Amino acid sequence: MNGTEAAAAAAAADLAAHRAGVTVTELHGLDEMLAACQVLDRVWRPDPGNPLITPELLRVFAHSGSYVVGVHLDGRMVGFCLGFLATAGLHSHIAGVDDSVRGRNVGFAVKLHQRAWALARGITAVTWTFDPLISRNAYFNLAKLGAAPSEYLADFYGAMQDEVNAGTETDRLMVRWELIGRHAVGSAAGTPHIVTVDDAGAHAVVGLDAKPDGGPAVGRRDGDTVLVRIPTEIETLRRTDPPLAREWRYALREVLGGLMAEGHTVTGFTRDGWYVIDERQERQA
Questions:
Q1: Which residues of 97-112 are buried (b: 16+ CB within 10 A; e: fewer)?
Q2: Could you report the per-residue pLDDT of 96-128, keeping only the tens digit for each?
Q3: 225-229 and 265-269: which strand pairing?
Q4: Distance CA 159, CA 149 (A)
Q5: pLDDT (0 to 100) of residue 139
Q6: Ranges of the chain with pLDDT below 70
Q7: What contacts 34, CB < 8 A, 6 or more positions away?
Q8: What is the DSSP secondary structure assignment for residue 139, as one 8-state letter?
Q9: Beta-carbon neighbour count of residue 182 at 10 Å?
Q10: pTM of the model
């Protein structure tokens, strides 16, 4: 990494924030930490007796050099992100954006800010986890940002009591974002890592698909490339049909988790909800 790459990252982050109409800045004071916790409460809606994090702990993270930032719109905090230093570089632990600003690419602005912040400190990789059943998050992380899954983590957090995660096992995909890799550089320049089912070729097989009734159908895993579908709106399904949502959880754990445990590589995620998994391709540099 060189100074030119860090400067380009900072410029891309500034442009993304401008286009989203927000400012992304580091937080320091206790009043800012309290506002950040309030953002997380609005987004995740935890049990009042079991907060996701406390203002005091955020103050410690910020003071010790971790990534603690707020997103402001018209003087009001509407988003927050926490990342802390880890063996891989920076681990992005939690983020949240108010519903009032969804659809404005605020999350993208935050991640480009995080990338610029890390590169300015000589950090070239960021890791984080996400629920692999949430299609929009899979597309954002793998396609729009160009991060690469590195590990399937079954029930990683155990039972959680916030309204978003309550009643479901907390399987997660760990992803690694190589900040000066070609996919991240392309993402910052406005060129996402787009893949389609057609790209998979004639030797692709379907490892997981949806039945006519909406349930999961486990298929083959013996092709050069394996396609794994997830539901479009798993969060709605969790509310309307929790047993069916659990079926999808276990099927995805079996197929995607099993393939990754065998050493297969997730090479992308399509706009229409398919993981593309290839045993032959090396992870991006």
A1: bbeebeebbbbbbbbb
A2: 999 889 889 999 999 999 999 999 999 999 999
A3: unpaired
A4: 23
A5: 97
A6: 1, 159-167, 280-285
A7: 55
A8: I
A9: 13
A10: 0.92
Tokens of 123: 């950090």
Give 239-263 pLDDT, tens digit per residue.
899 999 999 999 999 999 999 999 9
Q: How many helices (H) and strands (E) does the chain have?
A: 9, 12
* pLDDT (0 to 100) of residue 159: 61
Q: Which amino acid is at 164?
A: V
Residue with tokens 């809606």: 45
* Token pair recorded at residue 281: 């391709």
Indicate the SS3 state at residue 205.
strand
Spatial distance between the Cα atoms of 25 and 80, rounded to a whole number of angstroms:
10
CA atoms within 13 A on the CB side of 70: 24
The Cα–Cα gap between 58 and 62 comes to 6
Please count the other Cβ atoms lying within 10 Å of the Cβ belonging to residue 132.
29
Please check whether residue 83 is in contact with residue 67, taking contact to mean a CB–CB distance below 8 angstroms: yes
Q: Name the residue among 153, 170, 151 with its Cα closest to residue 266.
A: 151
